[in-house]
Fold this protein.
Amino acid sequence: MSAPRYAVGIDLGTTHCALARVDLQADDAATEVVMVTQLVGPREVADRPLLPSFLYLPPASERPQPLPWDSERELSVGEYARDRGAEVPGRVIASAKSWLCHPSADRRAGMLPLGAPEDVETISPVEVSWRYLEHLIEAYDARFGAEGGSLTEQDVVLTVPASFDAAARELTVEAALAAGIDDLTLLEEPQAALYAWLEQSGDRWRSQLEPGDVVLVADIGGGTSDFSAIEVQQADGELALVRVAVGDHILLGGDNMDLALAHQVSQRLAAEGHDLDRWQLTALAHGVRQAKERLLGEADCQSVPVVVARRGSKLVGKSLRTEVVRDDLVELILEGFFPVVDRDARPAVRARTGLTQIGLPYASDPAITKHLASFLARQAGATGGEGKMLRPTCLLFNGGVMRSQQLQERLCSTLTGWLEADGGSSPRTLAGGDLDMAVARGAAYYGRTRTGHGIRIRGGTARAYYVGIESAMPAVPGMEPPISLMCVAPFGMEEGTRAELPPQQLAVVVGEPVRFRFFGSSVRRSDIAGATFERYDEREIQELPPIEITLPAEQRAEGDVVPVGLGARITEVGTLLLEAVPTEPRSEDERWKVELSVRSAGTPAETD
């Protein structure tokens, strides 16, 4: 198989998807944005730099304009699908990426769109992601396939939120495999944003950053708010970039703002005597999303009309008309999502209702500034600065929400106030390019750095990982056997590397269902591979979804307890693979592998 000609970066975003590529065979090649052909109207196909992350499932009576490469497909992805959300919300899927990281949902089961009509066959979040990737591949191949081969033959770099856990990463890889991408690399979105800045800056970046600088990447997109800290270090006289901190997964972003704006508009309509039902509220959320994107993206746009159809109405004249005004939008987002708070402020945690509708586990507190303050304080505590906060010296914005200059200024001024109160100074803002395309461009540039061009950011895993080991003890009424934790992957462990674990006296049960308990920490950076402890602080180490599997017995009896030695490695796509090797194997290849991911009970582990 020949070496790939291009490195292709894919931003599989909550609100938009994007493609960029760079020629690996040209010494001075720059990344280029790949236009994506898509349906933009019922009978119109056009090229766009962004593919909106929306999927439309039309009724049998509706046959949209076929795409140049496919005249039979019934579903629609992209701009037209997004626009249909304001008219037939029960047939449009949005925010599928957010569902990929929902630990309580079966992400391989048909569940979207929520509230779909009876004649709509729901599909899984994994399949939705696959459909987005499938469209990107086909659009790329239609444009470049004859020249340089299919997208699936290139060096593909697919981006994910830094806070995605191992399960969400694997599900993303699963969607890519279903779309035909057999070989890919995952890259954290904040790192991709910094790679885009590095490419844009060229050699000038060395004069803008110096040893000791800490770059805070504030990535606030459609579905999540991601915070990462990347430190500038000096090694052998050369500057090096090392990712030193990643925040927790915060399901808070543009989707929340759309819901808040829809609520505000619905209250205004209610005051005018127009109460909206649930269907109309969903349609309104789609409508105000488009208005928000225009107002934040077009500086000269002051208001955008929004039309809400009456239930069952086919006449525009019978629809409700209103508008979203720029000043109202900015005030809502500034005060609701970016309030000026003290550096000691923390996100509020409200008591949950016993019964709740199925939906995304959004953050309880919408104040992004509070989540940022919590991130900085936690990371300072992890480095011995208890009572202080991590002091970023530079600030890089990413994500569609941060296109607004007013939001950038609010976040920067709030952060400056905290740092000055902590004895620091105002951070320098690193001027970026197109925030919508930065992640895709940075991913392509990262693919080029792996061939020896440019500087790479060192980081490895964003968390330390631990496995729970049950203690041997007699049965005691009302008491579970205590669990000790063993670190199997320290913080920052690089992809493709193996942890050297010391010999242990452990055993696995084969031939019957068992449960593996895993834990993770984004703040414990000093634990080494093999470190074992019986007590831990739940504020520092959180339990991850367990893996319930049956290890194949093969040459052993069901229920056998087999003494094993434990090994661990981080795969090339960033998932943790735990390997149990019998101390007295029955064959040369007898071993069991457990990957840190979400699997159904009874799914066999991989074996060699």
